[in-house]
Each structure stands twice: as structure tokens, then as C-alpha cells.
UniProtKB/TrEMBL annotation:
It comes from Sipha flava (yellow sugarcane aphid). Signal peptide: none annotated. Residues 82-175 form the Methyltransferase type domain. The lineage of its organism: Eukaryota, Metazoa, Ecdysozoa, Arthropoda, Hexapoda. One of its GO terms (molecular function) is S-adenosylmethionine-dependent methyltransferase activity. Transmembrane segments: none annotated. GO terms for biological process: methylation; mitochondrial respiratory chain complex I assembly. This is Arginine-hydroxylase NDUFAF5, mitochondrial. Pfam families: Methyltransf_11. GO terms for cellular component: mitochondrion. Keywords: Methyltransferase, Transferase.
Amino acid sequence: MNILKKSAINKNIKLSIRKLNSLKNANEPSSMTVFDRKAKIIQKQRAAIAEDSSVYDYIKDEIGYRLSDRLFDIKRQFNLVVDLGCGYGHVSKHISIDNVKELIMCDVSQEILDKSQNPEPDVKVSKIVVDEEKLPFDNDSIDLLISCLNLHWVNNLPSTFLQIKNCLKNDGVFLGAMFAGDTLYELRSSLQLAGIERDGGVTPRISPFVRLRDVGALMQSAGFSMLTLDTDELIIRYPSMFELMWDLKGMGENNAALKRPLRLNKDTMFSAATLYNKLYGNQDKDNNTQGIPATFQILYMIGWKPDPSQPKPLPRGSGQISIKDIGKLDKIVKNMGKIEY
């Protein structure tokens, strides 16, 4: 009887410990929480209400132009299109009635939407505030979803990719661009070295960025087909590190990592600026260029929602030419006269 009572007491203790742990974990952020979303919205709002906000659009305008060029390569007119994280209209201002009939412009900040540029008048436009992590669109309702330089602030990227795929119609397209891997590596390494020297350790001064292979795996897991991924780099020169950091703030792209330090010590900041100039400055002496370079790596992605009408790979073993004979392809084609597909 005593043994039974003892085992029952132990069981109750274990249950109590489990309940305490569950309550403790409920108050802690999820393992997927990397960014402070509330802080990021405030940063974007502050950037939007600034009188000189248009001065800092140069990077997003350039990427928006390049992304819209990829849209024009798709020879189709889309009935309903969503521009997710539209910003000040970096992509939408290039859209015409030849490609889009109706456009929904979305962003996390109403102040940004108020300043966003519309496409040509023939395109029907509506604007709504949308959180990229909680899309409000019905399943199978959108023909094309565009995202230009906003998904790198999403915590649960697998969930967002899945939501995007679900809201697309069959044979619908997702067209996106985001900052990736090597973005601002010069600034990151300079701040890390200065932190080790002045503060005795490394703190997350620059937000983390995804890698190409990771995005491809996530999009494939979400169910996209016919994936196309490629990267590009923009290298922009600034007089010093201080102008770069000022412009990042003006773009609303300053640090929003959850465990970021609240301030940057003056000694650490000046040390990082000196290291930045020493390690990366004045690289093009032949061209007499001055200042420091900042690298922005851009990842472009295109994914389609599966549909029976999409092209399928040929059955395994149906090829007529072995890959080991690829060097003799001209000779083989000449002997065959014509290859049947």
C-alpha cells in the first residue's frame, strides 16, 4: 500500500513539473522567432513619415525594376495580382494593363501605403494593411503574388511560403526578391571585430539572411513546382560606414533581431568605422574611387502552383542520347538527321 501511495505521489509530482514547464514555455518566444516584428513595423513607420523618405528608395527601386522585368517575361495577363510588401510602389509603378487587370497593394504600415505609387490608371487598385505572416486571402483566389524585399523579415518563412502557395490558383505564380546570404557582409564583419575588441564579445548587430539552397528547399517543401532561383549583387559605395547606416535607417532596414543590443557604444562604432575603411575601403585605386563598398546580395525566385496543364518531365529512360556523349552532340545530330521528341 505504501509503495502504491509513493508511486502515485511521484506521478503527481511529474505531472506538476510538466505543467510548470508548459506554462514557462508558453511565455517564451517560439524557436522560429528571430525578428521583433513590432519593432520592424515601428521602424518602417518612422521611415515612411520622414519628409525625405524618397531619398532612400534607390536600392528598392532598382530591385523593383529588375523584378518587374521578370514579370514582363511571363506572357500572360493576370486577373488578380497581390503586391505583398509593396513599399512605395517599387514594382507596382511599372505594372501596366497589358499584364495586370486588378492589383491589391499590401504592406504592414498604413503610412507606407499612403505614399505608395500606383500603376497606370487602367489597372484597378486597392490597398490594405497585411502582415506577411498571416495572409488574409482565400485559397485558390490569386493569379500572381509579388514580393519585393520584405520576406527577409518574416520569422516563420516555411509557413508564409505555404500560405502563398495555398492562396494562388492552380498554375498561379509567385514572383519574389529578398536580401540573401552575403548582404552587408562588410558591415557585419567590421562590427563583429569591433565588438570583440571594445566590448569583449560578438552581438547580433546585423540581422541574419537566408541562403539560396535553403529557400529552394523551403519552396519545394511548400509545394511549388518549376522553381527558378538566381542571385544578383549590388555593390554601392558610401563615403563612410556612418552614411551607410543612416541610409539603412532611412530605408526602414535597420536591425530588428529579437536579441539585438539596444544601443551601439560610441567607441565600438568608431572602431568599426575604422576597421571597415581599413579592410574594404579604397579598393579601386585605379579608378580613383573613394569611400567604402556595401554589398547587397539579392535572391530572385519564381515558383508555380502545380497544375495538370504544366509541362512534365519525360519518362525515365526515354532519352535518345547519353549524357556521356555530350561532347559529340554535333556529330550525333548530323548522323541522326533529325531527333524525334
